[in-house]
Amino acid sequence: MFWSKSSLWFSRSVPRRVLGFPPPTKKGWSRRIKYIINQWIHRLLHLNESPYRIAMGCACGIFCSALPIFGQTFIGMIAALVLRASVIASLPWTWISNPLTTLPMWYGGYRLGIWIMPGKHKPLSYTEIQALMQNFNQMDWTQGLSLLSTELWEALQPLWLGTVVMGLAMAAPSFILVYYVAKGILRRRNR
């Protein structure tokens, strides 16, 4: 059975040590998962950090969520460490880009990058991509690789520019909003 008593992570003593509260008494995997998620949310909302560090961590996570790379969570954590922000606060914000939102965010960043760099680049249409792939299939692998790298480089420039601008545009207001919300929560907690 998956949830055995001998399992170290789900034994009765480990959640008490790790999460700080006793686990649910009724059996069932869904109750334990809900309990663990609720405890992590509780810990996230009750961080013992300054409002600046919490807000900067959130901004790092939001900025990294827009970047056109995989592993935004780790990059958000590294950015939070470099900027001395809250690493825990940066984690959930990097999950804005999930499999459902990644392609629309990247396409929006690509179009924004093309709009910022007028004249240099034009958006690739589906027929142009199809013609490029047919040309790629008729070439030998060295010519195909060089063609693919130049076309990929031409598409990556506006993509990176657009997503960096989009990430900054999302991170700056979120920093201000989270800073004042965290400051208010800290004030209420100290009363």
Question: What topology emerges from the helices and strands here?
Answer:
Elements: H1 13-19, H2 29-45, H3 51-65, H4 72-82, H5 87-94, H6 102-116, H7 126-138, H8 141-190
Helix pairs in contact: 3-4, 3-5, 3-8, 4-5, 6-8, 7-8
Quote the distance from N terminus to C terminus: 48 Å
Number of E-state strands: 0
Q: Radius of gyration in whole Å, from Cα?
A: 23 Å
Helix content: over 70%
Could you say which structural class the secondary elements and strand pairing correspond to? mainly alpha
Low-confidence blocks of residues:
1-15
Number of structural domains: 2
Largest sheet: none
Q: What is the count of helical runs?
A: 8
Strand content: under 5%
Sequence of secondary-structure elements: HHHHHHHH
Can you walk me through this structure?
- 71% of the residues lie in helices and 0% in strands.
- It is mostly helical.
- It has 2 domains: 13-97 and 171-190, no CATH class; 102-160, no CATH class.
